[in-house]
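Hi Y.,

Following your request, here is the sequence exactly as I used it, all 201 residues.
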Amino acid sequence: MDYRINHCGILILAAGQSARLGSPKQLLDFEGMSLIKRVVGTALDSSIGNVAVVLGANAEKIRNELDMPDLCLIENSDWEEGMASSVRAGVKAMTALDPDTDGLMILVCDQPHLEPSVLQQLLHVQRESGLPAAASVYDGRTGTPAVFHRSFFPKLLELRGDTGARKLITLYGDQVALVDFEKGKIDIDTKEDYEKLIGNK
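Below is the corresponding structure, written out as tokens. Let me know if you'd prefer a different format.
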């Protein structure tokens, strides 16, 4: 089977309530821009394809940050279930938006050092590898951003609970090409993470 992705959409997961942080991480400022606006800008600048953001907790506050053209906003009413519900909502919405979508790249909003070149490299490696998926490697782990051929869509739709793309990357490791993204290890889950980020610009 030819797994080369030709019509890739980008799905940004931003529905979580940031319980450990105590405030919406999506709205944290880094170098003069909120984390959510930064990742959306990165996705749009990559020129890969349609970009959608899945909203849930604090949806209205975050929506106010995203007054941008060419952006699809998806409401996930089941966000309290965990990340899997956002993945499912995103896959359904993106394939409905463009039935020709044959690949999805999944991003989270709290990797502040993500750049368009990382996303472009991820898609390039997926196309060249002959494998149905590609994922990032950092700190000895695999994770997002990751891109999946549509042959993985049924598996993404089966995810449940607070489980995201990493579960599939781990389960089907022999079907996943890898891209080094060492700065991907920097993410924001706690106030200490954020203070470290802004202190180490």
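The radius of gyration is 16 Å.

Thanks again,
Q.
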